[in-house]
Amino acid sequence: MKVLIVEDERKTATYLKRGLEENGFVADVAESGEDGSHLAETQPYDLIILDVQLPGRDGWSVVTDLRRRGIETPVLFLTARDAIRDRVKGLELGADDYLVKPFAFSELLARIRSLLRRGPARQSTILRMADLELDLGRHRARRSGQALDLTPKEFQLLSFLLQRSGEVLSRTLIAEQVWDINFESDSNVVEVHMRRLRSKVDDPFEAKLIHTVRGVGYVLEQRA
Ligand code: CA
Q1: C-alpha 75 – ligand 1 centre gap (Å)
Q2: What is the structure's pLDDT at 182?
Q3: How many A from CA of 86 to the centre of ligand 1?
Q4: Distance 99 CA to ligand 1 centre (A)
Q5: pTM of the model
Q6: Ligand 1 centre from 58 Cα, in Å?
Q7: Fewer beta carbons within 10 angstroms: which end of the chain, N or C?
């Protein structure tokens, strides 16, 4: 079994590599998101251990990119931040599991074995509304069977709208949930992204799913 460790803290990386090798794994180490991405795309691995906080490209960007390229190697995220939002974000982007630092090596090993048992057939969560389909695990969006080419942010935005479909969502809430920022009243980041998202999700199709509720926000729903 071959494992790729993407971790910039050399001490942690060495500790992981040694521990895995003692347990019969072959382990490679990449110290940056770029190197990790490159290795994962060019070498076959059974599992990737991916630190979230990396210099340059972070773990989220790496996993998003891998899934977009159709690389379905199981990913175990290492996160120093025990925030629910971080975990949910990681899982939505296509990670298979996560571990909060610091962790016991025995726990890491148990998670790895469980992921490897599960095999490459990833269980995907699919969100649907009318003919719109969002595969959270594979990070794919389709409408009427056609693939939608969304940026990671647009994907996240659409996933949030779908999870709360039928509910009117304020710009403030969307900004907090999707951008992790405290909303400033003069910021139009939500509007700008919503416009781009609509140009891909709604404009080419007759039935519109994203609706503006004037003065309040947006709702995603099917209207007769
Ligand atoms: Ca790190």
Answers
A1: 16
A2: 67
A3: 15
A4: 13
A5: 0.55
A6: 9
A7: C
- State the DSSP code for 176: I
Between 27 and 175, residue with greater pLDDT: 27
- In this structure, of 11-25, 94-108, 172-186, the range with the lowest mean pLDDT score is 172-186
Residues 6+ apart with CB under 8 A from 203: none
The residues near 31 (Cβ < 8 Å, ≥ 6 apart) are 6, 7, 8, 10, 13
Q: By percentage, how much of the chain surpasses pLDDT 90?
A: 50
Closest C-alpha among 165, 152, 144 to residue 196: 152
Report the pLDDT value the prediction gives residue 55, as an integer from 0 to 100: 87
| Dist. CA 144 → ligand 1 center (Å) | 41
- Measured in angstroms, how far is the CA atom of residue 4 from the centroid of ligand 1? 15
57 Cα–ligand 1 center, Å: 11
State in Å: Cα 54 to ligand 1 middle: 5
Q: How many A from CA of 24 to the centre of ligand 1? A: 25
Structural domains of the chain sorted by starting position, each given as residue range(s) with its CATH number in brackets: 2-117 (3.40.50.2300), 126-220 (1.10.10.10)
Q: pLDDT tens digits for 127-150?
A: 888 999 998 777 889 999 899 999
Instruction: Give the pLDDT band of residue 14 (cuts 50, 70, 90).
Output: very high
What are residue 206's phi and psi, to 5 degrees?
-70, -50
**Which two structure tokens, joined as six digits, stand for 202?**
């709604």
